[in-house]
Amino acid sequence: xxxxxxxxxxxxxxxxxxxxxxxxxxxxxxxxxxxxxxxxxxxxxxxxxxxxxxxxxxxxxxxxxxxxxxxxxxxxxxxxxxxxxxxxxxxxxxxxxxxxxxxxxxxxxxxxxxxxxxxxxxxxxxxxxxxxxxxxxxxxxxxxxxxxxxxxxxxxxxxxxxxxxxxxxxxxxxxxxxxxxxxxxxxxxxxxxxxxxxxxxxxxxxxxxxxxxxxxxxxxxxxxxxxxxxxxxxxxxxxxxxxxxxxxxxxxxxxxxxxxxxxxxxxxxxxxxxxxxxxxxxxxxxxxxxxxxxxxxxxxxxxxxxxxxxxxxxxxxxxxxxxxxxxxxxxxxxxxxxxxxxxxxxxxxxxxxxxxxxxxxxxxxxxxxxxxxxxxxxxxxxxxxxxxxxxxxxxxxxxxxxxxxxxxxxxxxxxxx
Length: 417
Known about the structure:
The chain has helices at residues 2-18, 23-51, 57-84, 111-130, 139-163, 178-196, 212-231, 239-267, 272-286, 295-320, 328-345, 358-390, 398-403, 405-410; strands spanning 105-106, 109-110.
């Protein structure tokens, strides 16, 4: 009888726990959100700033900083509502976070924290795209483009993959944003680069990175922030988050190894810029699979990601002849495609369902890849032309491009010696 009473006392707490706030999960997600925030105005800004030329360093860094600021604003105004509001094709009902209070939960964490976490994804996505268009796009045009792109491109794609839009959800596995963030951003940057045309001196003079030191430091900060990006996407402090944390680290390391090995085989040099780029390629590759693959899969995914990133930058880029300034498509778009395909190929036993069919899942992955490429490509072009019309033309004049955008647009220099 006493045991019976004790069981009854436990029932309410067990039922209540399913719908209650978890302080442990909330604490982890606060940290993970801060990790991801660091990726845009610090990690990506330094990575991209080091890759560009000295006369455009501040402008390039400013595009990451501006993307984070503008992205945060439009996300809380309308982006989150489109991505995670109720609805099929696009979400609605949460404009200006309507109906969300400090006590509203998303799973076991406050929904306001989920808003903040997802907002960091939106900001870095459009910042990644800036890498394809730097050194020739107007800063004002990019700022308008960033705001419109998050609303018209990023938020709908997010809704289809993660937010409940069933019609255009093909059952894709994308744990942390392989197609939603990386392929989406890579395609967007590539399209704008095509519309803008090449830089005036592209192919005529050597275009060397301003600072491999900044590139390496930026890559390290991105690597650090990516733990929040991938492990945080579990939205809980549990075993899956721990696995995602580990495989993220493994894949990034193998991305470095893959890139520099191939670089040495081709050029007999293993550069620091190459190693840093390989780390980012490995991180991109593991992103969609981070919640479902094991260490063995991470080794292969990261290694191939690094090799594929090098191949895209060193070989394919020259074939396509599009001036993707900082190789955003080749490292994020192309490698993002590989990561999405690999997600269906390398599934850990803990994530494998009894009815799992690899062929069927591969079809779902390709459908999501195709949809993202077509939608992002078409709508990005429309968004760019609108932004260009609003700001009186999207490309800077020849004098500004020759002198550098740091002085002509911002009135500053990266180094005042």
